[in-house]
């Protein structure tokens, strides 16, 4: 075949050093992967959140009273919304990489002309899309329980997107590390769920005894939920500035680590 004939094949479109066509294609694959089973990946988490909301408001809400001057249902809802976002962002990137490893088709994204940075962006952006979509649908379904109009949009966007990015990158690292589904389940059970439940999702940490309240301030999930809740209610239990800086630093560290592992092909090329 002559060199002239080679130019007849579609060539990847590049912008600077980025293979934008390849990146966009992998991102669409990640999004379509969870949308094809939307009943499981989007509607099921929303239904679970509605069950939490119903149980807590019906069984506890009437006797619970206000939290920091905020009705209990309005205090609870932002935490539940973010909890759904966290779980689904982590699940999407982690399961995508692990399933590819188990099925032996990692070649699908390793062979095309995609750099480690392009793989990183596509996996993280796909996971963030799922997390944000679940959060938006959940917020819409919770409108009957409370007034969902945010008071501070910057906090909703910053803490929501930062949380989605953090769990998406943790999912990338977990997916690379895991060799079977039990490993990913262990991360969810022993890391993600405890940090979420002990972060003030269902309660104000000001109600905790001194030592436990102090320990809670070392939990990055507390700052995610506290900042996100502040965006809706104007109420915060901790320092917003510490939360902004801490999440930025953690995401920077996770981004560097995720990129380095993908660049090295850790547990992908063996």
TrEMBL record:
Key word Chloroplast present: no
Q: Which UniProt keywords apply?
A: Cell membrane, Membrane, Transmembrane, Transmembrane helix, Transport
Pfam families reported in the protein's UniProt record: ABC2_membrane
Q: Where in the cell is it found?
A: Cell inner membrane; Membrane
TM annotation in the entry: 42-63, 75-99, 119-143, 155-178, 184-205, 238-262
**Could you give a GO molecular-function term held by this entry?**
ABC-type transporter activity
Q: What is this protein called?
A: Transport permease protein
């Amino acid at each position: 075949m002559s060199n002239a004939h080679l130019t007849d094949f579609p060539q990847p479109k590049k912008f600077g050093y980025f293979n934008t066509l390849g990146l966009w294609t992998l991102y669409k694959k990640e999004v379509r992967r969870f949308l094809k089973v939307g009943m499981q990946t989007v509607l099921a988490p929303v239904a679970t959140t509605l069950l939490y909301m119903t149980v807590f408001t019906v069984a506890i809400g009437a006797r619970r009273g206000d939290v920091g001057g905020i009705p209990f249902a309005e205090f609870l809802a932002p935490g539940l919304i973010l909890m759904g976002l966290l779980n689904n962002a982590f699940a999407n990137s982690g399961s995508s990489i692990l399933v590819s490893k188990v099925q032996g088709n990692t070649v699908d994204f390793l062979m095309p002309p995609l750099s480690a940075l392009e793989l990183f962006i596509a996996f993280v952006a796909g996971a963030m899309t799922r997390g944000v979509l679940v959060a938006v649908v959940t917020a819409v379904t919770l409108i009957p329980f409370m007034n969902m109009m945010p008071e501070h949009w910057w906090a909703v966007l910053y803490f929501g997107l930062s949380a989605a990015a953090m769990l998406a990158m943790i999912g990338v690292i977990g997916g690379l590390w895991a060799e079977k589904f039990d490993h990913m389940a262990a991360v969810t059970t022993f890391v993600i769920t405890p940090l979420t439940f002990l972060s003030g999702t269902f309660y104000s940490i000001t109600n905790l005894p001194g030592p436990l309240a102090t320990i809670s301030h070392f939990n990055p999930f507390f700052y995610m939920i506290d900042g996100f809740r502040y965006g809706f209610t104007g109420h915060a239990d901790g320092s917003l500035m510490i939360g902004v800086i801490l999440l930025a630093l953690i995401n920077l560290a996770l981004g560097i680590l995720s990129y380095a592992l993908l660049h090295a092909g850790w547990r992908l090329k063996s």
